[in-house]
Amino acid sequence: MTQQNNCDVLIVGSGAAGLTLALHLAKNADVVILSKGPLNEGSTFYAQGGIAAVFDENDSISAHIEDTLIAGAGLCDEEAVKFTTENAKSCLEWLINQGVKFDKEQIDNGEKRYHLTREGGHSHRRILHSADATGQAIQTTLSEQVKKHSRIRVFERFNAIDLICQQNTSNEQTKKCIGAYIWNRNTEKVESIYAQKVILATGGASKVYQYTSNPDVASGDGIAMAWRAGCRVANMEFNQFHPTCLFHPSAGTFLLTEALRGEGAKLRRPDGSRFMPDFDERAELAPRDIVARAIDYEMKRLGADCMYLDISHKPSDFIKQHFPTIYEKTMSLGIDITQQPIPIVPAAHYTCGGIMVDTQGKTDINQLYAIGEMSYTGLHGANRLASNSLLECIVFARAAALEISATLDPDNRYLTLPHWDESRVTNSDEEVVIQHNWHELRLFMWDYVGIVRTTKRLERALHRVELLQREIDDYYQNFKVSNNLLELRNLVQVAELIIKCAMERKESRGLHYTLDYPDLLPKAEPTILKPEH
Length: 533
Ligand SMILES: Cc1cc2nc3c(=O)[nH]c(=O)nc-3n(C[C@H](O)[C@H](O)[C@H](O)COP(=O)(O)OP(=O)(O)OC[C@H]3O[C@@H](n4cnc5c(N)ncnc54)[C@H](O)[C@@H]3O)c2cc1C
Hints:
Blueprint: E1 4-12, H1 16-25, E2 31-35, H2 43-46, E3 51-52, H3 61-71, H4 78-98, E4 104-106, E5 112-114, E6 127-128, H5 134-148, E7 152-156, E8 158-166, E9 176-184, E10 189-200, H6 221-229, E11 233-234, E12 239-246, H7 259-262, E13 266-268, H8 288-302, E14 307-310, H9 316-322, H10 324-332, E15 342-351, E16 354-356, E17 368-370, E18 375-376, H11 389-407, H12 431-448, H13 455-478, H14 483-504, E19 528-529
Parallel strand pairs: 1-2, 1-10, 2-7, 10-17, 16-18
Antiparallel strand pairs: 3-6, 4-5, 8-9, 9-10, 11-16, 11-19, 12-15, 13-14, 14-15
Helix pairs in contact: 1-5, 1-11, 3-4, 4-11, 6-14, 12-13, 12-14, 13-14
Bound molecules: flavin-adenine dinucleotide.
Flavin-adenine dinucleotide binds near residues 135 and 159.
């Protein structure tokens, strides 16, 4: 017997997108939030820089739109960009009302106003921030608010496995989502959950790459689940890579801010020679994607595990004063950055594509919504403008909440869901297979589908993905689920979508760069994939 849970609204994911949605809905509905790990674990918690909105009187929404369109390299959906930027200020005011404390500065007349920073690609100061830990401030404030609501239940350490949909005829349009199978990690049992509306807010898929700045939960689960259920995806080829992530076996994921290069740090090969001047006249100060590409090129050319970032020529006190967190972190690993270069690799950072939605977060399946990094709204196009991603989470969560509140049926009855069939599975005695496939997948995605691509490498990667898919499906049919197995099954699905999108794009645009098609095509079109079933 599968234990069935019931609610009005099921939200899968407890980052900025999921929590915002829950708080907007809690007056009108019984909400369940699912989180795969602890409530606060997700990319939101680790966001550093801030969140963009027009607060300065010299700035304008049209300038924010223009900057977003330029970053997106001709591929943004203009309606989505307009919608997001126009709603930005009121959404940030909502965050402030929830208690998020953005930094303020004193102005001449003694009053205080929000301190706005400027980031690459923005023509004005428009980034609200809480020191260099904005995501943490947003995540912890919203989760505190969620805990106060009697109509929100939080299921921590539950993995959503698959969506449960109903289809009365063969017409896709009549398909509706009525819940999900969920794996209770605490009891190690599969349960089900019925909901009138299901919202996926599971974050990005950067864990498909060997090196990533994202936390472990970023395994593309929602994208894979929605695809398996029949939703279209778009623009999965656009993965943003951060150029400098610390390379150390026991460092976990740790970003090295671009401010280091801003303050004069040089990128060096293992033999100590500089290479950025060979790639761009701006050298280390070239834009993020150019620096990431140059590092990747040198690593592949030399067969090196990493390159080096060197700020040791600056006075020791300057380094300690400007970069205290980095100094402490690297010292704890035995690297004294005042004396020696820091080993670095580029790392997968942000998933620009995802499940296709409209401006209310609606997917191709009735009663199923997607919000946050896992969705494709059209905002980012071929490259994300810094600090627009947290904004997208808040704006689209609020829009989805309005739609959901207006269409919830107050007389709805809970349906009985089909049981999860475990009769033919046994406990795995071959965990090594999962471990091996995990490493293999992330390594070939890094080598063949990373920052610089070729058609041949993509074909190789697709061939390997197909083999892995067969092996993992077989494993999934025969053994009880585990977190690693569920994530691997989703990652291999997302990998296939990334490769297929990349193969469809016969040009280099934004974050997608291929040696076989180095130029831009005259017309910019999104890459859209539709499931065959
Ligand atoms: C290091 C770093 C710095 C960043 N800096 C910035 C910045 O300064 N400004 C900015 O705008 N953006 C920044 N970003 C990007 C931004 O943080 C993310 O795009 C955003 O937080 C995504 O929010 P989300 O709610 O969509 O997902 P997340 O915050 O990633 O939350 C995903 C949630 O889904 C849950 N989940 C996943 N799969 C399942 C499953 N199968 N079952 C149940 N639950 C599941 C997870 O447990 C988690 O609760 C940064 C990202 C990183 C990693």
